[in-house]
Amino acid sequence: MEQATFGAGCFWGVEEVFRNTPGVTETAVGYSGGQTKNPTYHEVCSKQTGHAEVVSVTFDPTQITYAQLLDIFWNNHNPTTLNRQGPDVGNQYRSVIFYHSESQKAEAKASLTKFQARLKRRIVTEITPVCTFYRAEEYHQRYLEKRGLTHCHL
Q: pLDDT (tens digit, 9 = 90+) per residue, 37-53?
C-alpha cells in the first residue's frame, strides 16, 4: 500500500470522492501543513494554525496509480482559487498536494503542468513535502456517508 495526501477545500467532499474510488483502501480526514500541534477543527477554522483540511489516502498501486489519483484531485476542485473552494474561504481550504516521495513530487509537478495547459487561469496549488498529519475529530470521518449524503459542494 502507498499513501497520498491532498487538500482541495472542505475535506468532507474530498474524502467522499476518494473513498469511493476503486483501489483506494482507506481514507482519513485531518489537518496538515500548519504550525500548531494537535489542532482542533475550531482552531483550524480560526485561520491561525496554518493547517489545510486534507485527506490521507491509502491506495493499492496495483489497482490505481498515483497519476490517476492526481487526475481525480485536479478534476474535483478548482485549483485556480487561492484559499477558497466554493463558499468556503480561508487558508484551511487551500489547494495542496503533500507528496510522500520524490517520485510523487515529480508526478505532481508533471500533472500540474499538464492540467495547467487546459486552463486559462493560473493554478495556485501548492506542491510540498508531506508533514505531520493530524487526524480530525471522529465526527468528521466519513461525514457525508454518516449523514446519507453523496456530495458536498464540489
A: 999 999 999 999 999 99
Nearest of 130, 2, 13 to residue 68 by alpha carbon: 2
Instruction: Answer yes or no: are the C-beta atoms of 127 and 105 closer than 8 Å.
Output: yes
User: At residue 154, does pLDDT exceed 70?
Assistant: no
Q: What is the pLDDT of residues 109-145, one digit of tens each?
A: 999 999 999 999 999 999 999 999 999 999 999 988 8
**Residues shown for the chain:** 154
Asked whether the beta carbons of 11 and 1 are under 8 A apart, the reply is no
Cα 3 from Cα 9, distance rounded (Å): 19
Q: Which residues are catalytic?
A: 10
Q: 128 by DSSP, 3-state: which?
A: strand
- Planar angle of CA 69, 73, 77, nearest 5 degrees: 165
∠87-76-95 over CA atoms, to 5°? 65
Cα 152–chain centre separation: 14
Other C-beta atoms closer than 10 Å to the C-beta of 139 total: 9
Helices (H), 11-142: 11-19, 41-45, 66-75, 102-116
